[in-house]
Amino acid sequence: MYQVDYPLAPPANPGGSSAATVYDTGTVSLSDLRRANGGKRKRCRVIVFTDVADMKLRVEWAAPGSLTLRLFQADVAISASTTFQRNIRLQPGRTKISLVTTTNPTTFEVGADLCDDQALDQ
Asked: Could you tell me the fold of the domain covering 6-115?
């Protein structure tokens, strides 16, 4: 069966000492998520290019019904001036994916989509 990825709007440049939210299942309604997801897309593919050396990819999770986000695993460092890609499995409950930095990026290019591709799996 042919799979169509669902592109997400890229986040704005977070500036210094801040975070840019790439995807957060807690900020969309369940009906919007089902329409975008089709009930089949289980991953969010993120690709980043930036000029700062301290940017990190952060994945947080909250159990169904919980309001407390918890770090899903250690933040992943993103090297400056290198294309970075990660395919993150969406967990039951809430999954929040952010890019965190303390330096104001001059170059901040981000693409993300919902997919079911297991390549580059987290």
From this structure: Jelly Rolls (2.60.120)
Q: For residue 67, which amino acid is it?
A: L
As a whole number of angstroms, the distance between CA 35 and CA 113 comes to 14
pTM (2 decimals)? 0.85
- Return the domain boundaries, the chain: 6-115
46-92 pLDDT per residue, tens: 999 999 999 999 999 999 888 899 999 899 999 999 999 999 998 88
Q: State the Cα–Cα distance between residues 51 and 27, nearest whole angstrom.
A: 28
Buried b (16+ CB within 10 A) or exposed e, 82-104: eebebbbebbeebbbbbbbbeee
